[in-house]
Amino acid sequence: MTNAEISDKFMKAFEDQNWDEWKSYFTNDVAMEDMAAGIKANTLEEFTGYAQGWKAAFPDMKGDITNRMEAGNTLIEEITWRGTHTGDMMSPDGNTIPPTNKTVALRTCFILDFENGKCKSFKNYNDIMTMMGQLGLMPS
User: Fold this and answer.
1) What is the rounded CA–CA span in Å between residue 121 and residue 35?
2) What's residue 94's pLDDT?
3) Cβ proximity of 79 and 108 under 8 Å
4) What is the CATH number of the domain that holds 59?
5) How far apart are CA 44 and CA 81, in angstroms?
């Protein structure tokens, strides 16, 4: 399976909230960093909690890959995530943002590094400011 195929599978598992399958595509010591929020995870369990937090806030969230480049063990993807904010969302400072019931189109870039058929490094660059505007939480 190619790295792009692995990414397709873990995105589908994320969308379906199939967490056991989702976890099978990552190393146990996967390093995840959300650049916009300043959040880091250094274990698969921490990363899974981060992903589950997004799905709790946006249960219908689905991603559309708009661009993909692969070089060796590195995969770079541009993705637009669409969903409706119907659940509580944690902010980087630990506060809870209650549901706004508004939809978002969140543009994101993933930089993924793979080893032995699993993702070992996951860097997430997302446009949080635009999303916060779409949610009505700041001027758009």
Assistant:
1) 13
2) 80
3) yes
4) 3.10.450.50
5) 22
